[in-house]
Each structure stands twice: as C-alpha cells, then as structure tokens.
Amino acid sequence: MAYMPNLMISLPSKKRLAHIVYESDDRASKAFDLVLLVLILLSVVIVILDSVQAIRENYGKLLYWLEWCFTLVFTLEYFLRIWLGNNKTGYVFSFYGIVDLLAILPTYLSLFLLQTQYLTVIRALRFLRILRILKLPEYIKEASRLTDALKHSKAKIQIFVGSVLTIVLVMGSVMYIIEGPESGFTSIPRSMYWAIVTLTTVGYGDIAPATDFGQFMASLIMLIGYAIIAVPTGIVTSELVSARNAEEIKAHPNIKSCKACNLKNHSLDAVFCRRCGTRLTPRAE
To answer: For the Ion transport domain, which residue ranges apply (predicted)?
Structure first.
C-alpha cells in the first residue's frame, strides 16, 4: 500500500490575521488593504454605472450580481474585523466601523426599498483608510492641525453663522413685505430661501424681485454675500497660522522676540521687528 503523506495546510493564527486586517506595516497587511481599496473602487464604479439607464438596460443583471458579490465580501470583512478586534464595541461604534456598516446596509435594504442601492456610494468614504495604509504622517499632522483650528474657531464661527441667519431672516422678511406673493415671495420662509440663494451668489432664478426697491435690496444682498464669503476662511486661516507659530516657538525656544511690542512669532533670520522696527534679540530661555 502506497504511503500517503499527511499534508497539512498552515493557516495563519487569529493573532496574525488580526495584524493583517488592522495593521499595515508589512507586506501581507499592505496587500490586504490595497486589494480592499481596489474592491471599494470597483464597487463604487458599478453603482455609478448602474445609475446610467443605457448601461443598466444592457448590463443590469451583471451589475446586480457583481454588486451582491462585493457586498458579501464587505460583509465578511466587517464581521471579520469584529471577530478579530480586541475592542469589538470600540470598532463597531468608531468612525470606520460605522462607515463599514453603512457601506453594506444599502444593498440589503434594496430588497425592501427600491433605489436605496445607490446609497452604496458611501463606500467612497472608506478611501480615507488610505491615510492609515500609506502611513502619511505629514498629512495626518496637517489634518490634526486643521481639526484643532476648527475647534478653536468654533465660537467665532457660531457668531458668524448666527449673524448670517439674522441677515437672512431680516432680508427675507423685508422682501416678503416689498415684493409679496405677486413676485413669488409667497411667505417669509420662501423669501428666506431666496435670501440664502442670493446671499451665497448661487442665483437659481426661480424667484426674482420685480420692483425697483426689491432689485436694489437684491443687489445689496449680493454684495454682502461676496463680503462674507471670506470671513470663515479668514477665521480658520488665522487659527492655522497661530497654531503653526506656536509650534515654531515650541520647536525653537530661542526664537527672536521684540522687547518693544512683545511680538514673538518672527522668522528665525529676522533682524528687525516687522511691527515696530525695533532690533530683535533672541527670546530668553
């Protein structure tokens, strides 16, 4: 009787699988993540193509089955991440966990609610994993800096938004009184909609003032709209500059400061204060 060797397939351990799925610091884990990104891209393309009537009529059945194949793969991946994770609840309620769940739900919901399969384009959000996959510390640092700037600007932005809403309310009410239903301003909410469209310089044209004074007010709102566009940009930019200057001062404790006006965020090669012109000296440690 011929001898048959006992062939055993070496399967990776659970710990190794977890490293492949959750990390991206070796060849296997990077390959897993890159394959996953390719599948995400293909699935999004299929959803987009399925929305084109001519393509759907000719290849609808093929696209349908491909979409289900991708959904089953992503479903397996989702539960695999839960099974392999040390903090299962943490993953489920994390940003990526919620996005992963939302990426597969629309296909299952389409069995009961038509058109919901097109919501699977939310899978595009999963491309944010590329920051972790490629390990781009500079991009992550800049994203963190931008997030901090938005947090520090929160109070100013709230005041700005409140001011804009007040302008919209006042202008909408004024236009309702001036123009009235005859010009399409049938209510204050409808007039506020017009004010928002005009203030943001979109100008759909579905509602337009007919009186001279109404047109004058519309012109005024347009000019205000151009003026306020730069406000939130300036607020966030100011915080970004302040954060960068603070990091520079922290990184260079001897950075030059002005004794006359106490301005500290000068360039390292500056000789005179850019505010008052006083000769600069290194900041005392």
So the answer is: 30-246
CATH number at 81 reads 1.20.120
Residues 130 and 159 in one domain: no
Residue-range definition of the domain harbouring residue 85: 14-135
Q: Where are the alpha helices (DSSP H) in 117-264?
A: 130-133, 137-152, 154-178, 188-199, 212-251
At residue 282, what are phi and psi to the nearest 5 degrees?
A: -60, 145
The type of residue at 189 is: P
Whether the predicted model's global pTM rises above the 0.90 cut: no
CATH of residue 174's domain is: 1.10.287.70
Give the single-character DSSP code of 86: S
Query: Where does a domain end: 79, 110, 135?
Result: 135
Q: pLDDT by residue (tens digit) across 176-216?
A: 999 989 989 999 999 999 999 999 888 788 889 999 999 99
In tens, the pLDDT along 166-175 reads 999 999 999 9
